[in-house]
Amino acid sequence: MMLKRMLGAAMALAALPAQAEPPAPDYAEAASWSTVASLPQGAAPATGARAVPGFVDVFWIHPTTTRSQSALNHDPLDPEGLKWTEESAVQRQASAFSACCRVFAPRYRAATTMALMNAQSRESAFALAYADIERAFDRYLAHEGKGRPFIIAGHSQGAAHTAALLEKRIKGTALQKRLVAAYVIGINLMEGDLAPRLAGIPLCRKPAQTGCFVQWNAVLAGSDTAPVLKAYAGAFAAQNGGRDGGQPLCVNPVTFDARRPLSLSAEARGAVAGDPGLGAPGPLVAGAVAAECRDGLLTVWTSPALGLKPLPGGSMHYHDVGLFWADISANAALRARAWLAAHRKEARR
Q1: Which residues fall within 8 angstroms of residue 79, CB to CB, at 6 or more apart?
Q2: Is-contact 275 92, C-beta < 8 A?
Q3: What is the pLDDT of residue 239?
Q4: Which of 18, 23, 26 is nearest to 78 (CA)?
Q5: Does an H or E element contain 184, and which?
Q6: One-letter-per-residue 3-state SS of 65-104
Q7: How far, in Å, CA of 306 to CA of 181, rounded?
Q8: How far is CA 1 from CA 7, 31, 159, 166, in A?
Q9: Do 157 and 122 contact (CB within 8 A), yes or no?
């Protein structure tokens, strides 16, 4: 369901021939997990506090990183694809959580761009990818989580898998008590998803709120957002018996406060300069982006100093995380501290 809505405006291509699946990752092996090895220039290095027993973990799910025209699912251990995934996504995005938390980032058989644009292949390709994520999550819970509080976070395809984990594995279970927050970045969850799909896991409305989720989709100021909003609404209705889904959900990732949908550039802690690509992340630039939740999308005004290029239509999808790297890092730490403080109080009662 989420995949169809995420790609609601995409044109279905001709059916693709069946293809052999890449080998399944073995999540008992270190090679099936990414490691945050670099930070944007100017970012404070992670401290040893994140390894202290009782601290918070992050389960991070990377976005689509393979534009293959011959494969439906990404081979996570293919050297060339792995290098691009690591340097363009994991080091640039998952690193935002490394200062507060241990990061567990599975290498998985993500659906490729070709599969996602094809109506007859996308569901099976996406299902294979999600099956890897569930296996990785189970491995994390059994061998590393062991009762620890956790954040789940992902971008684009990774965000869709994040939402699926919330719906299928977290909602209404004992794990929900350990959920610090979820960062569902760059997809189109709608107001209609708050119930019944995610009933009991609310949208975060305050910066230190826990047990909730945040979402945003960045678009450059001045862009015509009517087509994408129409596509989101139509896709939700098609998947929900014609039901009106309302607006897309949006939380400003600078204020993280529903009462403050607008943030000025002076408030932004630090965006990553440069487009995603090979090599270490670019430098952090503070005060370089203003943002406002409008009609369920995050309108952004960016400084030319960042050197970022929008996608057609003004989408800033590739920069949903990088624009707010330091803000996300600070907020994850805030929520982690809030969860730990609240549960220490509960333990003393």
Answers
A1: none
A2: no
A3: 87
A4: 23
A5: strand 179-185
A6: CCCCCCCCECCCCCHHHHHHHHHHHHHHHHHHHCCCCEEE
A7: 29
A8: 10, 31, 13, 14
A9: no
How many Cα neighbours within 13 Å face the side chain of 1? 14
**E strand or H helix at 108:** none
**Which tokens sit at 287?**
């005060």
- pLDDT confidence band for 9 (50 / 70 / 90): very low
Give the pLDDT confidence score for residue 122 in this predicted structure.
Answer: 87
Interval 193-222: pLDDT, tens: 999 999 999 999 999 999 999 999 999 999
180 with 150: CB under 8 angstroms?
yes
Residue 230 bridge partners (DSSP): none
pLDDT at 346: 59
The amino acid occupying position 150 is: F
Strands of the sheet with 218-220, listed across from one edge: 218-220, 297-302, 289-294, 262-263
Which residues neighbour 108 within 8 Å (Cβ) at sequence distance 6 or greater? 25, 61, 74, 76, 129, 132, 133, 136
**pTM (predicted TM-score):** 0.92
Read off the pLDDT of residues 232-265 as tens digits, 9 standing for 90 and up: 999 899 889 999 999 999 999 999 999 999 999 9
The enclosing H or E element of 272 equals strand 271-272
